[in-house]
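INFO worker-7 received task bundle
INFO bundle size: 2
INFO processing item 0
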Amino acid sequence: MLAPNTKTQVYRNIGQIAFFALFMFAPVLNIFRLDLYEGHFILLGFNWTLGLTEFQHGNATAGEAALNILIRVFLPFFALAGAFIISSFYWGRLYCGWLCPHYTVVETINKLMTLGIGKPSLWEDKKLPEKQADGSVQTTNPIYKTLTFLAIIGFAFLWAVSFLTYLLPPKMIYHNLFTFQLTFNQSLFIGVATFLLTIEFAFARHFFCRFACAVGLFQSLSWMSNNNARAIQFDTRRANECKDCNEACDNVCPMRLKTRSSKRKKFTCTTCLACVSACEQVQDGDPLLSWNKPREGARSTAPVFVPLKQKKDK
């Protein structure tokens, strides 16, 4: 089942595309990169060094050198990390669901794979229902199997080249690439990175986000420490309305979570709100799921109240 085309999801997709473009072109535009030839970072077109040149030439004291490191390294790092943790404390993994380039790849491959084999992951036991949240029927098409394979290879290669431009001058890398003049080390880096990313994109997309991504882990830990943080809430007072639904909320979740389960079980929720959008379409604009602080009658700390067996009893 594909993510619903609601206004929320349209805005989120715009943010994802914009940030993905920033991720790709940041080195080219000298917005941010590490130049290994020069031995320092480049930020917004300016050289970002530790400010130790004067100290190395004996024209500055050790205290002045330490102050430069504090101002140019530690303060920016802790300011950025602090803002990131505070954001996560209140809103969860907002970066993951709305900006992260990797999560954009995860969702794109999920959609293509669903159109090709009827399920978003090779590890799923069963295919997703063909009926979409908006009532339409989506059948599989073998051509999407090929498109999925090409997307996996394409994203892996694109990421590998992009990673290299964060370390070496982008102009040189792209010139060597397009003129087939890559050095042995450049070719080796791109080849190995493409191979590893292909494996990850094909088989371990969700597992990386859930278990291996340090950025996501710290966001989740910060979010879980706040009992009043925004989370996906399930309106238990209207639980019976779930009986006629084909679990649209769970089916669209890119992380393959049970969206109506407890917050503890949704530790890796990325706040993409795909489940809320799906419920909104199924319930004609009046969803049982919402992204809110905990409130009476809406729980993110209770198990699902509508077992699938009840559907058969109706």
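INFO item 0 finished
INFO processing item 1
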Amino acid sequence: MLTGVILIKSKPLNKSALVGCTFIILAIFILSALIYHDTIIINPTTIPIKSGPGINYSSVNMKQKKRVFIIGERRNWYRIRLSDHQSAWVPSWLIHSKRPLNNQNHLAGAIIAIDPGHGGSDSGAEYKDDSDKSKYMEKTYTLKIAQSLAHQLESSGAQVVMTRSTDKDVGLKERVRIAENDHVDCFVSLHLNSSPTQNEGSGITTYYYHRGPSKQLAKKVSHQFKNFPISNRGVEFGDFLVIRDTKLPSILCETGYVNTSKDFKLIRQSSFQKKAAHAIAKGINLYLANQ
């Protein structure tokens, strides 16, 4: 039978002991912060792991999640240490991605430059001559298609570089400089065509300047326009500065004629803009699959 209770009275910590405990807790916190400051968790099922800073490098095999140190950065890619004798590269913008990698998706890790033609004081072609309304101007719809294309590419894990994202003036050489400074994998300039006489022309044309990769990219993109409500005029050589002066795979897409009623009626529809963007994104993906 329990006949008594022993009471143990703890002594309160003195001031120096409290300071000591606080110092230890603070030291642990700082040490933890230093250890994890330059580390990231890599999930090989959601991020491409490459031997160099770009999607064209060979893949590095990694079987499971791992916390790794960041030991460098280049072209928006992190260099990571996998072990004492092995390093690899991962696209920085996909570190926290939860989207599973798909074997058919070659856009994840790619950097794509989108160039919405014209802008600002440069209206581009117009549905009606001397119109002062932006709803009749080429610059309005090149930007809308560009924004839809950017959304679709980013949803697939690409990083997008826009030469303009608002209605502003951007010089032709500046557009090239933006793309080349970001070391993009390909450059797509978006335009709309016009004919000398209203309602004379119709269709979609994909232009290239340089043979090789640029022409291959143009063919892959153009092929996706085969089942469109307006005709596909195919691939043509085009001497345009933005694709002539670039050293990277570059194309220029004219997705319809602004001054043709049939084409313009479609161009103004968001469904057509999304469909055109989807075709271009699919063409880029197929091009990258063969690189």
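INFO item 1 finished
INFO post-check item 1: DSSP finds seven helices and ten strands in the chain.
INFO post-check item 1: The chain has two domains: 37-94, 111-289.
INFO worker-7 idle
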